[in-house]
């Protein structure tokens, strides 16, 4: 018999859903003011993330295969694309933004942890991020931006990073973690897989394995502050997580997504003076996923 523990899940992943709804609200307000968009945005909230997990098994090709996003990719998206675009000019999916566990903000020293067994690998793989976090005495005061450097993830990550920095509020920091592999299943060494397994713990893994660009935004879940004790526990609740700093941190993330999506949707009409034209089509996703598509091909 399997016993399931039910918990409120304010950070994991009420935070992602709240951010998605705020993004929808802001973009809808712009649309009501006359903005027209060349690309389509699809917002999706996935379930059954944990059910597909194969953590701890010897034949695990992926550390996590969330069933909700896998069903979306295999069963929902293909017929939707065919219905709306047909077979003549297949649409290009520009990118996916995954929001999963991303409102935990902590300025206490050593509130950001790195597992000792991978700290050397972590420092070698991400020297700039490691040095930055270490210089702040490992405060958990930053958003993690995780992507694959050799892919079109980099383009989407750069757009989001630009939007984040343009918002100011420097106390809410961001650190980039560019991965060198394109698919987790292609990493030959089990030691390397073990070192990077925590960079695959969300729905972006399904998109990466399907050769679709995606970035993951997270606060690092059970490696930071209150969530070290509260990850998948009852204390991931309103009383613990709903602080002013956490809300403001989450708000900056939502605002940066709005700016990024507004630009990449190729807007026209009134209220678009802050947006530049983009020759690429877009898909953006948040755990809760957003997709932009149009009839243009990447050149």
TrEMBL record:
GO molecular function, one term: metalloexopeptidase activity
Gene3D superfamilies: Zn peptidases
Coiled coil: none
Cofactors: Zn(2+)
GO BP, sorted A to Z: proteolysis
Pfam families registered for this protein in UniProt: Peptidase_M28
Protein source organism: Mytilus galloprovincialis
PANTHER family: METALLOPEPTIDASE M28 FAMILY MEMBER, PEPTIDASE M28 DOMAIN-CONTAINING PROTEIN
Name this protein carries in UniProt: Peptidase M28 domain-containing protein
Family: Belongs to the peptidase M28 family. M28B subfamily.
Domain Peptidase M28 span(s) in chain numbering: 9-135
């Amino acid at each position: 018999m399997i016993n399931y523990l039910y918990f409120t899940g304010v950070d994991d992943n009420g935070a992602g859903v709240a951010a998605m709804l705020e993004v929808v609200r802001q973009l809808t307000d712009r649309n009501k003011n006359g903005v027209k968009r060349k690309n389509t945005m699809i917002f999706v909230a996935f379930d059954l993330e944990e059910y597909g997990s194969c953590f701890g098994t010897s034949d695990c090709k992926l550390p996590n295969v969330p069933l909700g996003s896998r069903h979306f990719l295999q069963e929902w998206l293909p017929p939707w694309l065919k219905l709306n675009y047909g077979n003549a000019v297949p649409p290009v999916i520009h990118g996916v933004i995954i929001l999963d566990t991303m409102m935990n903000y902590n300025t206490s020293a050593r509130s950001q942890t790195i597992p000792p067994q991978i700290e050397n690998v972590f420092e070698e793989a991400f020297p700039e991020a490691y040095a930055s976090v270490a210089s702040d005495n490992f405060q958990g005061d930053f958003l993690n931006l995780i992507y694959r450097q050799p892919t079109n993830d980099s383009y989407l990550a750069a757009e989001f990073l630009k939007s984040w920095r343009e918002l100011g509020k420097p106390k809410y920091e961001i650190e980039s973690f560019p991965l060198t592999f394109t698919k987790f299943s292609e990493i030959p060494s089990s030691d390397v897989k073990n070192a990077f397994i925590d960079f695959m713990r969300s729905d972006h893994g399904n998109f990466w394995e399907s050769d679709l660009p995606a970035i993951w935004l997270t606060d690092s879940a059970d490696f930071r502050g209150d969530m070290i004790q509260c990850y998948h526990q009852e204390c991931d609740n309103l009383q613990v997580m709903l602080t002013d700093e956490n809300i403001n941190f989450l708000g900056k993330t939502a605002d940066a997504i709005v700016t990024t999506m507004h630009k990449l949707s190729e807007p026209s009409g009134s209220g678009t003076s802050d947006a530049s034209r983009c020759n690429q089509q877009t898909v953006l996703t948040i755990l809760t996923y957003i997709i932009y598509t149009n009839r243009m091909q990447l050149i």
